[in-house]
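sry for the spam today, last one i promise. struct tokens for design, 199 residues
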């Protein structure tokens, strides 16, 4: 029995030391460094409005459906834009259901934004991302929505386009992907613009 205890004690000590280091010290160290060096990202990349209220995260989409807001990509996450139910539709390129949904989305996008029946529609305007929570849209998608938003808010089109330009981010490292626009940040920016005065 004494031999068994003498063999178990080093194992128990090693387990205890590893538990303290890997379950306590290391996570605390990484969290502390992240909070100091990457405070915004470690805190969830929260977007705060002009009144100091948290309106969401720059990393997660929200469903804007009113005509006076820019609309995000479609979402298959949960009931749509549900951060607790992230995921895609899992419909493949040969799926008739996906084909029909895309056809309906293209027609609805053209109708909502006053486009002709043969106008090109950006892919991100009618397809969901893999997570269903992509917070960005393409610049071309934003520009096609600009006239509708400007009209609904009583703003000049050039002011809305300038706001899109202000909220356009460059590709990662200058070469990964395309320039994109964060929809939540853009819509919050819209709320700071006063409508044009009417005669």
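last one done:
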């Amino acid at each position: 029995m004494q031999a068994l205890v003498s063999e178990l004690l080093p194992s128990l000590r090693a387990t205890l030391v590893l538990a303290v280091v890997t379950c306590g010290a290391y996570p605390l160290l990484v969290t502390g460094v992240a909070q100091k060096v990457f405070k915004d990202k470690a805190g969830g990349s929260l977007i705060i409005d002009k009144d100091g209220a948290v309106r969401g995260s720059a990393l997660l989409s929200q469903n804007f459906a009113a005509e006076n807001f820019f609309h995000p990509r479609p979402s298959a996450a949960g009931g749509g834009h549900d951060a607790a139910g992230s995921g895609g539709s899992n419909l493949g390129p040969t799926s008739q259901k996906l084909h029909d949904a895309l056809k309906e989305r293209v027609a609805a996008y053209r109708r909502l934004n006053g486009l002709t029946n043969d106008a090109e529609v950006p892919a991100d305007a009618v397809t969901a991302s893999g997570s269903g929570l992509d917070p960005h849209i393409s610049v071309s998608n934003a520009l096609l929505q600009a006239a509708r938003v400007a009209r609904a808010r009583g703003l000049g089109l050039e002011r809305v386009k300038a706001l899109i330009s202000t909220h356009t981010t460059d590709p990662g490292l200058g070469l990964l992907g395309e320039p994109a626009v964060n929809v939540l940040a853009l819509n919050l920016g819209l709320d700071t613009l006063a409508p044009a005065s009417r005669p």
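Residues 1-43 form one domain. ok im logging off now
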